[in-house]
Design goal:
It comes from Rothia koreensis. The two termini are about 30 Å apart. This protein is α/β, with parallel strands linked by helices. Strands 1, 4, 5, 6, 8, 9, 10, 12, 13 and 14 form a ten-stranded mixed sheet that branches. The chain has a two-stranded antiparallel ribbon with strand order 2-3. A two-stranded antiparallel sheet has the order 7-11. It is built from six helices and 14 strands. It has a single domain, classed as Rossmann fold (3-Layer(aba) Sandwich). Strand 8 and strand 9 form a beta hairpin.
Length: about 250
Amino acid sequence: MNVSDVRPLIGITTYYQHATWGVWNGEAAILPGNYLHAVVDAGGIPVLLPPRGTGTKVLDTLDGLLVIGGSDVDPSRYGENAHPTTEFDTERDSHDFALLGAAEALGLPILCVCRGAQVLNVAHGGSLLQHLPDVLPEGERYRCAPGVFSDTRITIDPESLAHSILGDSCTVSSYHHQGLDRIGKGLLVTARSADGLPQILESTDDSWLIATQYHPEEKRLEDRRLFAAFVAACGSRTEAVSDTKPTPSEEITE
């Protein structure tokens, strides 16, 4: 069998916005390239999921789900009014929440990044800090300037899945103005930065679920461990599902 036939299929959420390139000027479904490269480098086959029109049935064909970063979550989902700095897309929220919930129900390995971690927390009944400078004026500088990432040192719980992948601590790339506040049901904080802000969430059960407030795809060339572990988990699930399917000689025909 060709190697490409057995690589796991990784669904990746995207976002919809105005874009311009060449003579084109219009709306587009967009995925920052580093997410794509990180999945491919780790041995996965990326499947881009447009933020309009994608149904949860597509997850039946996939081996894992990557929920990427982007705009804020609608604060009405966690019972708050919007802060002046909060910007959200209700259609994208509906799309990402539906896909994430369905992926959890199917037991797919899931990796959530930045906004993805916030979607996960809110989906489990948690809440967000809508603007970190209001509550952590002396904390880490998570967003230095538009499009500029900052380095953040995180410390990881030794009993966690993240620790088995990343060790005691590591330096990560941050770009966000919101953070995790009340942690949702069934989730556990397994890494924090020096200012106490949660940086990694995991499931309290044995699901392969990691959500990072930071952006692991930005350090993909120097630290491939998290994406490698995620794609490996998706590959293990692929093999397990394949093992339960009958081979042609085992199929019963009438």
